[in-house]
């Protein structure tokens, strides 16, 4: 299937207020009463309000077209693309899938994911300043490349970043965070928003455990400290260990 390279003009981004600081954690940051930084918070809220409005339009469009949308997020290199390559190979026969993948540069991930046969759109954010996350307006435009009547599942692979993507709703039904065992057990505590907003965690690269001093119980406990009910699937995108449970859970979510 062809890969569509998609670039667009910047609509808005936190760089719009970077002269104040690199700050766009609007949700749950209720410090508007403070004198210092009050203007930044007002701008951030406006940016997120605009994003949320477009996300709702996306959500309505996806519901009308009966398309289930999954947003996959993680630090760079946790294995999002590797997991999606294997996931698509499991589900493509039963679920008509398409992918939007975001990176600052390159079409490497789109090239890898297109092998599955799914239509893939690569979003490169370098055209509009190297944004570190996808946002609702980007998805709204990128889906024009698909015929939504022919798609049951849209997977969004977000940019590698454990912070910013968590703040931008895109109208998805499901958010999944990938945490690989090489990143350390404490990441859910250090980056709690991501684990708070996601519906499931994939603990990836467990094939490497024999080579690491990694406490998987501590990792699970830390995730549950932030999000007590969160399902956690321990998987390896290399060996496909744990994939049966992950795929079964995903299919249940897709079919409601
Ligand atoms: N051993 C092992 N390696 C893995 C596994 N999953 C991914 N990798 C490797 O980890 C590296 C990064 O994987 P990617 O799938 O590119 O990670 P990503 O999260 O998509 O990266 P970005 O899109 O750049 O953020 C690659 O070399 C993969 O082969 C796994 O389960 N086990
Ligand atoms: Mg990737």
Helix and strand layout, with pairings?
Blueprint: E1 3-6, H1 38-65, E2 68-74, H2 80-91, E3 97-103, H3 108-114, E4 120-124, H4 136-142, E5 153-157, E6 174-180, H5 187-190, H6 192-197, E7 200-204, H7 216-226, E8 232-234, H8 243-254
Parallel strand pairs: 1-4, 2-5, 2-6, 3-4, 3-5, 6-7, 7-8
This protein binds guanosine-5'-triphosphate and magnesium ion.
Features:
34% helix; alpha/beta; Rossmann fold; 256 residues; binds magnesium ion; binds guanosine-5'-triphosphate; 8 strands
DSSP, total strands? 8
- The helix tally amounts to 8
Spatial arrangement of strands, main beta sheet: 1-4-3-5-2-6-7-8
Low-confidence stretches: 6-23, 25-34
Number of separate structural domains: 1
Return the structural class: alpha/beta
Shape, please?
A: globular
Helix content class: 25-40%
Kindly report how far apart the N and C termini lie: 29 Å
Element order, helices and strands? EHEHEHEHEEHHEHEH
Can you tell me the CATH class? Answer: Alpha Beta
In the CATH hierarchy, the third-tier topology is known as: Rossmann fold
Annotated CATH architecture? 3-Layer(aba) Sandwich
Radius of gyration: 18 Å
Oligomer: single chain
Largest sheet: 8 strands, parallel
CATH superfamily placement = P-loop containing nucleotide triphosphate hydrolases
Content of β-strand? 15-25%
The residue-averaged pLDDT reads: 88
Describe the protein's architecture and organization.
This protein has helices at about 40-65, 80-90, 110-115, 135-140, 185-190, 190-195, 215-225, 245-255, and strands at about 5, 70-75, 95-105, 120-125, 155, 175-180, 200-205, 230-235. The protein has an 8-stranded parallel beta sheet with strand order 1-4-3-5-2-6-7-8, with helices on both faces. The protein is an alpha/beta fold and about 260 residues long. The two termini are about 30 Å apart. Helices cover about 35% and strands about 15% of the residues. The structure holds guanosine-5'-triphosphate (GTP) and magnesium ion. Guanosine-5'-triphosphate binds near residues 78, 81, 160 and 207.
